[in-house]
């Protein structure tokens, strides 16, 4: 395992669930059934992640809202080797464009229902009848 990275199942499950922001970002990029396979260790302070979906691997970051498809190397053992030797700069990536999803619309509707509808500002005229 490259220094500063972990594949501890407990940590992976803790930080990446179907409801997590990262899983939602993966869905917004068209990835189905994304699974976290590698993440920076809490001790390292690094927040990089590697996920897999559809036989491909993707780089992401817990604080940045985009994903990059790792185009080179292609296999998990090769990715681990490059991370250990060159770090992230050894990976070649193609960044994905997020798209609107029905899931986002549902969340917005739920928030509006919880708050009593959309927020509107109506100026009040103290001299109004």
- Kindly give the count of domains: 1
Q: Walk across the major sheet and give the strand order.
A: 1-2-3-4-5-6
Q: Largest beta sheet, briefly? A: 6 strands, antiparallel
What would you report as the Rg, rounded to the nearest angstrom?
20 Å
What spatial form do the alpha-carbon principal axes imply?
elongated
How many E-type strands?
6
Question: What is the beta-strand fraction?
Answer: 25-35%
Number of helices: 4
Low-confidence spans: pLDDT under 50, at least 5 residues? none
Structural class by helix and strand composition: alpha+beta
What percent of residues adopt helix (DSSP H or I)?
A: 25-40%
Mean pLDDT: 84
How far is the N terminus from the C terminus?
A: 73 Å
Can you summarize this structure?
With 129 residues, this protein is α+β, with helices and mostly antiparallel strands. It is 29% helix and 26% strand. Residues 103-129 are annotated as: Disordered.
